[in-house]
Amino acid sequence: xxxxxxxxxxxxxxxxxxxxxxxxxxxxxxxxxxxxxxxxxxxxxxxxxxxxxxxxxxxxxxxxxxxxxxxxxxx
Length: 75
Prior knowledge:
Oligomer: single chain
Structural class: mainly alpha
Largest sheet: none
């Protein structure tokens, strides 16, 4: 029973912090960034696209097969 209260407390604290940080941090930062110059926003878009994980798989899957099956240690 004690574990349920701990889990509920962690969930409640996390929900509260998510709500507070969304309204106190995310929204003001969004409005601030809207007023930045277009070149800064373009650079931020490049960083955002680079951070998306989809294109990493194009590199990681062939590298996995290369190291796993082709360049195995023969010892």
